[in-house]
Amino acid sequence: MIILTRLNDQKFTLNALYIEQIQSFPDTTITLSNGKKIVVKEDEQSVTEMIEHFYKRIGLTPLIRRPDTNADGEKEG
């Protein structure tokens, strides 16, 4: 679970497992797997870091690979 802030300063907790994509329009928009969109104050990088921290806490890190890394987790290029 990650804690985020809506544009009206309302804090809420989101289960990061339901996040399908994150975009900056320039506001950070999170699309959930059910199609619902949520706009938050946090920037895209901060949300991504929160998600990675959440995945580490629940033991999913070995299953996740960033797009700019190879299968061993090393930077490509």
From TrEMBL:
Record Pfam families: FlbD
Keywords, comma-separated and alphabetical: Cell projection, Cilium, Flagellum
Protein name: Flagellar FlbD family protein
Originating organism: Bacillus selenitireducens (strain ATCC 700615 / DSM 15326 / MLS10)
Biological classification of the source: Bacteria, Bacillati, Bacillota, Bacilli, Bacillales
